[in-house]
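User: Hi! I'm a student and our assignment asks us to look at how structure tokens line up with a sequence. Could you show me two examples?

Assistant: Happy to help. In each example below, the sequence comes first and the structure tokens follow. Example one:
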Amino acid sequence: MITEGGGWRSLLFVPAVRPDRFAKAEASGADAVCVDLEDAVEPGLKDQARLEAMRFLTAGSPVRDRAEACDRVVRINSIRSEAGLRDLLAIIEARPREGTIAVPKIESPEELRWIDELLTGAGLDLRVVAQIETLRGIDKATAIAAASPRVAAIMFGGLDLAAELGVSASWDALLYGRSRVVHGAAQAGLPAIDMPFVDVKDEEGCRQEARKALALGFSAKMAIHPSQVPIINGAFTPTPQAVAEARRVVAALEQAAGGVILLDGRMIERPIVLAMQRVLALTRSTPTSPIPGRKIPCDLPSSSKVTTSSGSSRHFCLD
């Protein structure tokens, strides 16, 4: 289920070559399901996988209640490759009415502007999630995030980055890359999605990494197994205590009618109110999927631009 204003919490990946797993993925509780045409598909299977991905993107959700439906995403191959160009042309020819395209290995804002021009020329109202997972991409994270209004979120791909750096995909080794992606996304007013936790049997490890990602500024995390979805959703969902405190702050704001807010002897300033409004937005559901990264409505007068925000995987299993 999608949370209003907060975008996604979880994005579950499934190989495009396994259409028998699509329904199971959509029933997992993930906010979005991404059918993958990139790392999960061998070169010789790209054509058949592309057909399955187009069926997924153009078919209606099997869930009748839109409040319980997840967003549908297709990750194409890099647009600097023949496979990626074929993927993009297939999407234009399939003409899906809605959905999201995840584009891996983005290294410049020009790539996203080119995609935007193609989709606009085709009359397609599709969102784009830009995945940053190379050293060049990290260097241009801020420009990439601001490249096009069609960009709905920024996704951090740590496995390819770790390979390029020659390091393990540990938290410490990738902290700088994660931070650059979060900062670039926040500056553009977009949510940042963290890389997956690859050990599907280590539930506590997944939970801890999700909490660390939240503390760093990510608002969602990729998953590679349905068992990770409730863990990730739980980490990115406000606790009842946090919701109660947010309601108290917002109520105090309404009573103050724009004046100085004092609560329990503390002066409540604008950044705190914005954070509390975001907490409340994350608790509200909507029957239609909001665009990830939609800015949180704020009743405070604004004198400056204020935005808020809270991998590529080679292993997929839905068994």
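Example two works the same way, sequence first and then tokens:
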Amino acid sequence: MINDFFSKQSLLLVFIKKILGKDPFNYISVENNSKISYNGTLIKKYVSIISKGNSTIQIGDNVILENVVICCESNSTLVIQDNVVIKNTEIRVLNNSKSNIGVHTIIGSFKMHQTNIYINSGIFSTANRCKLFLEKIQVRFGGELSIGRYSGFGFFTDIRCDEKIQIGDYLLCSYHATIYDSNIHSIDPELRRKNIKNQFPNGLTDFVKPKTAPVLIGHNVWIGKYAAILKGCNIHSNSIVGLGAVLSNIKDSETKNYVSQKPRIF
């Protein structure tokens, strides 16, 4: 109720802004030769936008941000094009990364489920009119992730890109799906044990690029709930990946329907 009250720009909110000399519910910071630009109307509510370390954030016209954290730093660029809606999302673009969010794209959904987009030394782009209700996008080690127009992802879907993931137009992706072009961690047990010990109690972060292979997904593909598309897959246009199917190193040049596969190949 209190959020709805203040979102209507009540007289009390106007009074608070005047007394404090700033908006108490939104934070914008520009540091170290960086830029934040708005090309038109920006509607924001409970938003933090930070640009630092010679980075640039460019926001188009009629953009809506609500419960959003955006951080762009270390020679990085983030472009949010016109008519984009982002809610309940954290976006971090770091270390010489580039990100572009296409016109009329929708990111994030309800307050109990946050969407996280983490681009570290990589490239991430969506075409126009995408719908990203997923849980996480992570791009590292110079990876390149591109998503075609009108492609949509259901809740709790996870995309990890360390080399290249290319997704075509009109993708229909259900809930809890997984798309990885990488092993994520080393398959060397001694190295994993060493990293786990050194990084305890934090989660495991890899500083050496794990084994990868590009993932290519054509146009009009349907990915079912709990399906996993792993490194080395080439899924042809108009294919269907059935509920719970796990695919790895699939390279097909024709449309197919996948139900299951033999255990994945590392």
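Here is something you could point out in your write-up. Residues 1-16 have pLDDT under 50 and may be disordered.
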